[in-house]
Amino acid sequence: MDGVDLVNRDPNELNSHIKVNYEDVLAEPDGIRSFDCVWRCSYGCFNCGKNCVYKLMTTLCGLCIAFLWGCDFGCLAYHHVWCYTPYMREFAIGCGYLQKCFGTVINCCLAPICEACGMCFSKIHVQNSGK
């Protein structure tokens, strides 16, 4: 547990888009106001409800969900290391072979045609008439 930061629990700001503070959810516009005691009490009720439910849900489900996500990312890493990366290497090797075969076929079929065309067109002389 040495690597767990208990103060900054989102160092990479993965959840910076989640705005769940009272001020992010409830606001009274100018021109309309509730009683100050209602506003203060609603602040307390909101935070109490949010914190109690969050702590209850993380207590009941957090460990199991963290375990499942750990298993999921373990499987993902396994598939990439042992399946996808070797397959992509095999595919790249096969493509290199096909590239050589295709190049040889093109060279055998098109090179004589291009060479013949080059010889035919090399005999053409263009003269500009000076007007």
Automatic annotation (TrEMBL):
GO terms of molecular function: molecular adaptor activity
Domain of life: Eukaryota
Protein name: Caveolin
Family: Belongs to the caveolin family.
Swiss-Prot/TrEMBL GO biological process terms: caveola assembly
One GO location term (cellular component): Golgi membrane
Subcellular locations according to the entry: Cell membrane; Golgi apparatus membrane; Membrane, Caveola
Record membrane topology: Peripheral membrane protein
Species name: Potamilus streckersoni
Signal sequence region: none
Known role: May act as a scaffolding protein within caveolar membranes. Interacts directly with G-protein alpha subunits and can functionally regulate their activity.
Entry keyword set: Cell membrane, Golgi apparatus, Membrane
